[in-house]
Amino acid sequence: MHIGILGGTFNPIHLGHLVIAEEARDAFSLEKVLFIPAKIPPHKDTGPVISSEHRLRMVRLAIDGNPSFEVSDIELKREGPSYSVDTLRQLHRFFGEGVELSFILGWDSFEEIHTWKDYKELFCLANFIVTNRYEHRKEGIGGTLPVEIRDAFWYDKTKDLFIHRSNHFVAYLDTPLIDISSTEIRKRVREGRTIRYLVPRKVAEYIEAHGLYGGKR
Length: 217
Known about the structure:
The chain is of the alpha/beta class. The protein is built from seven helices and eight strands. The chain has a single domain, classed as HUPs (Rossmann fold). The protein has an eight-stranded mixed sheet with strand order 3-2-1-4-5-8-7-6, sandwiched between helices.
């Protein structure tokens, strides 16, 4: 079984997340994509984060109707910061042998992967599918591999993949460039502006119904 992992604060989830997940599912023949909301994101300041209950419900609403998408509360149930290495270890224990995990993330996040907890182990636990979420930068993905571990990879020219000695790969995924951010969505809600076509309709209705992000009920 080949499972894609898309983590994030999802504060809130938006159409950009869904497009990336579907593109990765199609390009790498993933049997499903698992959306994993973070309890305490350790890597970036995302501004005020609403309750995990609200964020989990919005992800469920967003992926409803796509049988290849699922959501997991694995990080929300775990105490402390939501480190990806802990999540991948836990998923391997849960799924057992025979599962292949592919971690989906944006180029900007991959450039900072050397700052992640136990980052060298990450490449032994999962493949990495790097997308152009914020900018189109297909050239030079090999140069973003942390210097300390570059000798652990070799380049497969026929498949355009960097193969780790664990046989996991790092690949680039050219996706439609949809410049949507959760920060901008929250700002629009505070200002009373429309978020239609930025988030799924059910998510927009949920945000309004619960008065999230400073919006009016």
